[in-house]
Amino acid sequence: MMDSTNPNSIFDEYKKVIGQFKLPGMDVSAILESRRKDIEAIAEANTTALAGVQSLAQKQSEILRTTLTELQSFAARAAQSGGQPAANTGEVVQQALRKALADMQELAGTAYRAQSDSVAVVTKRVAEHVEELKTLLQPKK
Hints:
This protein is mainly alpha-helical. The protein has one domain. It contains 4 helices and no strands. The two termini are 41 Å apart.
């Protein structure tokens, strides 16, 4: 299986696949070598995306942990103050959980937009690459 975060591994895999095809009058290795930077950029984008997803998950966990800790503290104080939970305890809990979920959703939305922007950059480069290959592969007159 290909390691999507290692540029050398990705490049070697592409070389192996493309090396299976023989195109008359074409130096496939030279063409592929000229695209090494593209492949490295894709690997870097994958690494960055993975780090972003991991960071997002950690931040969402922190938000939830902080909210639950605050709710636990609130419940303990309410219990100590009279043994009976206040009438609005349920409402306070619901509001705190709604806020935590809204914060987590906002983070996910921000991450999604950043990822979409990154994908757009890579997609643009891939389209340019295809056009360059078309030019390279046209028969010489």
